[in-house]
Amino acid sequence: MDLRESAGGVAGRAGRAGLGAVLAGLLLCMAPVRPSAGEAQSGPGPGPVPAPYTGLDLVTGNDYAPYTGEDLPGGGLVTELVRQSFAVGGRRFDVRFLPWKRGYDGVVLGRFLATFPYVRTPEREREVLFSDPVVEVRQYVYLSKRSAMEFHGGGTGGDSGGEADFRGRTVCQPAGYALPAELEEMVQLGRLTRHTPSDLGACVRMVAAGRADALVIDEYSGAASIARAGLAEEIRVSEQPFAVVTLHLVVGRATPGADAMVAAFNDGLKMLKQQGIYDRLLAAHTVQPAP
Questions:
Q1: Are residues 216 and 252 both part of a single domain?
Q2: Range of the domain at 235
């Protein structure tokens, strides 16, 4: 710590006999330096010891209301849940908003600490560790009114009827998002055509214009993105959900301390639920889905 200068010019009179006592008093009274933004901190008084700051930030993406987005209150529902889950354990991290693929790839490569919210897929399981479910949601099929396609149910956990409805059709999947495993397999086999625009809003517009038959997305972000685009009159919603899925925080498997970080997050999330904070945040952020 540099004490060569002080408001009273103490260092300039180093020859005085009382200087040692003055400096000792200054050292005892001086407050600790505040950590930089994103650095782990502990709250006042006794509590969990914060994990060492790794120099890595949390990262998420935009255009995924009500879960994440720079333009949403608190950065969105999941952003607030993630921040507060870490905070109850004495951890503070910056959250950066980046393109989805760039953020996810950065986590896999160890450039960022964690990202969210992500659905489990076999490919992702090989690259990242998944937290406990942050939010459970129902996925619906959003259909163009310009398309004759219908969806009769039978997605994940059901029979093959749902897959048959997609055969020969065109589905929209935003960059950085994942198709349900059954539909991904159909794309790979050439039974389903996929468009991959840059964001969810572009997919909504493609479906509304009839350039894609369908979009499979959860009910809350589907309702929010369609309302934002003002295209509710151009899009139909399937009566039956395609699947029930969970959204997670993920940490790269190669990141040092990955298991401990996921465990700390899970503990914090449990505390939010026990304290009633989780339910209050859910009610404050979620958009009522279409009937």
A1: no
A2: 136-244
